[in-house]
Amino acid sequence: MMVEHLERRIARLDREIEERLAPQKETMERLDAITGVSQRVLETLFAEIGWDLKAFPDAAHLSSWVGICPGQHESGGKRMSGRTRKGNRHAKTILVQAGHAAGKTKTYLGAQFRRMSKGRGIKHAAVAVGHSILLIYYQMLTTGQPYEEKDSLCQALK
Description:
Blueprint: H1 2-20, H2 25-31, H3 39-48, H4 59-66, E1 74-75, E2 78-79, H5 89-102, H6 108-119, H7 122-143, H8 151-157
Antiparallel strand pairs: 1-2
């Protein structure tokens, strides 16, 4: 009985989210072409970041705000820590999940994930691919261009 009640509430919230995002349906369909990005990822990014990115002068500022850009701690010419900074935990979490999902595909982002996971590990690779997804998200929203897969690397890795 409690499970049914909670399922009804979740369905009601899903309908409300769908209604609120209805004006952005065309944009969401365009962004859905990004490898690793699902409807839930887009809903979370729209909720946390929005689709009006005028507050961020460039993609580097957005990735810094989200906290998914690589750390740059260096002393005496030696890189110390590469920790990511604190940022929007919801957006960062969903981007890392999208990075893991993209890593299972035979696309440019999947090749990037596999290449980085060999040397740095799976978690570092997922963060790096999540960062790339965020950069693509920013570029597509600010320029209005469709997503184009980089084929040259994918063909070489097949």
